[in-house]
Amino acid sequence: MRLLVVEDDPMIGESIQHGLRKSGFAADWVRDGKSAELALGNGVYDLMILDLGLPSKSGLELLGQLREQGNEIPVLIVTARDSVDDRVAGLNAGADDYLVKPFDFNELNARVNAVMRRRAGKSNPLMIYGALTLDPIAHQATLRGSSVVLSAKEFALLRALMAVPGAVLSRAELEEALYGWNEEVGSNAVEVHIHNLRNKLGSHAILNIRGAGYRVSMLNDVDS
């Protein structure tokens, strides 16, 4: 899952980006509304975390413009503006949720996952496919009821595949889900993470579809 952070405060922006990456998200960070417009033009983002007090174009202006253009990207407003009027204005402009600074990062993480669940029409945070279960909030994976320890990138890759169970994702799509702009991507990084996942989940857990990409396998009847 790839997120865009729009925050002009360097300390807050860097902190949010760092925390999101530790949680297994690919996260890019821009500092003003104009830069956010340009970043959103490539259509790769699953959610935007938006500050309201931005230079060049306010967060509300940016959000209103996006909704007028028919852009339905999920938006979580994160701002120091805590009045009821401010919250109402943000939600009426098209935000999916509103979080007031200062906040605990665990709450931000939970709200990101909650927004994505609501957009997908799901109430249960768990991602279940056969004998494999992923809990995005607790950042835990289990196979046949046994806990599996995954790195942040392994967890992110598995989450991307389980978000569309049975579908084939290309290497480029997986790289977009795993890495932000300034993260170094090795030539075989995706293959290395898939190799590690197979070691932990079983050799048939991730299937290689020749010439197309990868998909997660239904593991009920597959020996690990």
CATH architectural type of the largest domain: 3-Layer(aba) Sandwich
Number of helical elements = 8
Sequence of secondary-structure elements = EHEHEHEHEHEEEEHHHEE
Largest sheet: 5 strands, parallel
Rg value: 18 Å
Tally of distinct domains? 2
- What is the fold-level CATH name, i.e. the topology of the largest domain? Rossmann fold
Apparent shape: globular
Structure report:
With 224 residues, this protein is of the alpha/beta class. It folds into 2 domains: 2-120, Rossmann fold; 127-216, Arc Repressor Mutant, subunit A (Orthogonal Bundle). It is 39% helix and 20% strand. It contains 8 helices and 11 strands. Strands 2-1-3-4-5 form a 5-stranded parallel sheet, sandwiched between helices. A 4-stranded antiparallel sheet has the order 6-7-8-9, covered by helices on one side. It has a two-stranded antiparallel sheet with strand order 10-11. Helix 6 packs across helix 8. The chain is globular. The chain starts with a strand and ends in an 8-residue tail after the last strand. The mean pLDDT is 87.
Brief write-up:
With 224 residues, this protein is an alpha/beta fold. The chain contains eight helices and eleven strands. Strand 1 (2-6), helix 1 and strand 2 (26-30) form a beta-alpha-beta unit.
